[in-house]
Specification:
Length: 396
Amino acid sequence: MNYIDIFAGCGGFSVGLQTAGFHGLFAIEKNKDAFSTLTHNLIEKNHFSWPKWLDVKEYDVNQILKDYIRELQSLNGQVDLIAGGPPCQGFSMAGKRNCNDERNNLVLSYIDFISIIQPRAIIFENVHGFTVNFKEGYGIKKYSDYVVKRLTELGYIVSYSILNSSEYGIPQKRCRFILIAMKKNNPKDVFYLLERNKEKFCKQKGINIHTSVREAISDLELCHGKEKSPDSKNFSAGLYGKIQSGYQYLMRMQNIHKEGMIADSHRFVNHSEKIIQLHCELLAKAERGKRISSKDGIFPSLKRRGVTILNPDIQAPTITSIPDELVHYSEPRILTVREHARLQSFPDWYEFKGKYTSGGKRRKQEVPRYTQVGNAIPPLLAEQLGISLMEVLNNE
């Protein structure tokens, strides 16, 4: 079965759907950094057929709708699945939640794209704030209601749920709005299969259904050694330790990534002595797994919006694009990009491209590695959604 990945980011949906057995036609992502990661890992490895009429480069979805309308119309009825969701910053409960954020209008573009292609099925993903009311003028606007209404008008049967990734083998408490729409089947069957099969799926993968932080990243600890970073001058990168869990075995693809090798994007931050001292204080006094803010008054030297010392025995909180919100459970440092990727369930063969971080005004244009990982859907969840959807479509 084929699919199109829209608002693809660095490829979380695509790597999961690939493993589930889907084949990509093409992907739409407007950011150059995220698209370079997608290109390196999937496009250059022929996961996508990629049509001749579309150059392999980053695109805004509105540019595609404007410049390639006839080509899109030719795909009407030829596509099994469209997957993805527009940027979530305007809807996120963790952010400013701005009903006037121009990115919210990409929901309209998404619907326009669907109306032209008319795929057999849709998987739409976003933050759980997508279902929460906006107070806008004299009315109330809930974007999830709008999407359901428009898709129903297009002839789709629609169902949605708030899924917590931590219930599906992923070492992260990440709640997401997942909407499934189908032309001829009841999408509730997909959610039923997803729930019914999750324990079997995890058993087949050799992982626990509730994977802990320690199970996810203990083989990446600084104590396993470090060398000069291969892609960053004046930085060190961590080495693989021994595999200590089924999850690590899965992420390292049956031990292809050997002990003593440098892990991709496992570059340690060069913390100042002041920051190291703060982290040591947090490790000594802070409750594991509990978010601490400067407003609490517990740590006067804490200048961050909030920080959590990871509890190694449970799942991590939601990974975001801000890396200094999480501190390692036993080492006075924030996590590396590779450790974030592990908590998101990206396999270690998936290599990230572009800058590691950016700041200031550049954050509005650039999507560095930490942000690419933080914005993605966990591939293991995407895989399970793909498997369940494929089973329903095959019984059509």
